[in-house]
Specification:
The chain is mainly alpha-helical and about 475 residues long. It is built from 22 helices and five strands.
Amino acid sequence: MAFWLPFCTALAAYTLLLPPGLPWLDGGELSSAVIGLGIAHPTGFPLLALWGKAFSLLPFGELAFRLHVGNAVAAALALGALGALVDRGLRALLGDHRRTVALLAGCATASAAGASRTLLAQSISVEAYAPSLALWLGVLHLVLAARERPALAPLAAFVAAMGAAGLHAILRPLALAPALWALFRAALRRAAAARLGPLALALGCAVIAYLPVRAATTPPSNWGDPRTLGRLWDHLSAGRIRRAFVDEIATRNAARALAQARRTVEMIEGELGVILLLLAVAGAVALARRRGAPRALCGWLLFALGCDFLYASWINPMGLGDLQNGGATRLALSALAGVGIGVLGSRLGRAAVPAVAALSVIAVWPVVASSALTPGARVAPDRWAQAALDEVPPRGVAFVTSDDLAAGLQYHQAAGQRPDVRVIVIQQAGAAELEAALVHAGPGARWEAAGDSRPRGRALVPVAAPLWRLAEVAPEGLVGELAR
């Protein structure tokens, strides 16, 4: 019940909130990669592609909706695992006779986390965050269980390595660190299963092989082309993103770093509320005072808080405004708050159950009330991309600079619309892509620079070929290169 009640409730709620079509931001590009089993932007997300592809084959609903369902299932799995984690911690602290208290606190925890704006935004459209969070919490369960059953340590290592290589990069510290610690403990206890640790890690990391294999088949969506070791490493280490945001990622400007940290704290407090944060402190103190699994649970949750806060505020602050950062922080704080609710409520003896229920409402209601996302037909991204695709003439080549527009066009093409159109993202266009565009456009096509009829700068226009410009402004260097 501690898992299934939050899971079923979250899945039902998220399904009602799912948008009917294409989302903004990376969702369109990730959807096109999922549909064609392509390679998404760094770090590639092979597990996301395989997970989403399975849901794309479901025999109901519009294609984008089916992909969103896959993400909602992953988010519901994360919340179910969160409720079970709180249940595990409270039973260790209070004993099995407090099952109702633990269940109520676990459900409150899942409700608070799932209703936060950040997790809600990450749960109702195609993204890598929800599957990553579900896998991280699954690893924590395995690591805690491995304290009593060391044979589970290699399984934790396998799952952690697979997620770290195939999902979001934040899993590298969040999941790998506790899994490696579980292997180390098993080795200290001279458990035979510890010998399988290196093999489990290697097998988990083998999911990376998806990237060069799929690149060799030239899938419709290939944002990295990791066919060589150098390109593969550049993709896995997000080289293109680091170069594009060199002034923002891991900034050395102390004032900017401090401002980003303050903004992160304000967003956390604004989403979760002061009451839930105070309950999280109470839960952390209660877990830390008890040796064994409770203290280990507290340690790994605090470790996740530190890593995720560092990532959100310093390593990748660009995702704050888009609600792409901080999912692990919301889950960890909610888990600690759930423990705090159970511990404080249980002090009232026979009145523990109503006390926990009251504390749950007091803690969760501000989170639900502050959530600004609402259900409804968010069809603007879909219609915008469709209108742009309809504007391209037959056998046209559309040049775009907007990530949203590029993702939308690629999604519609992956779904089978306008196969005669070739979409080229100018930021990634190399000599091979440009040559392929000329071949696609037909005999006699060549490039020249010309003034844009729209007041947005220079554009690329063809001679004797149906090449179409949907981008805002072409880089001057690229214009000159093509003109030559």
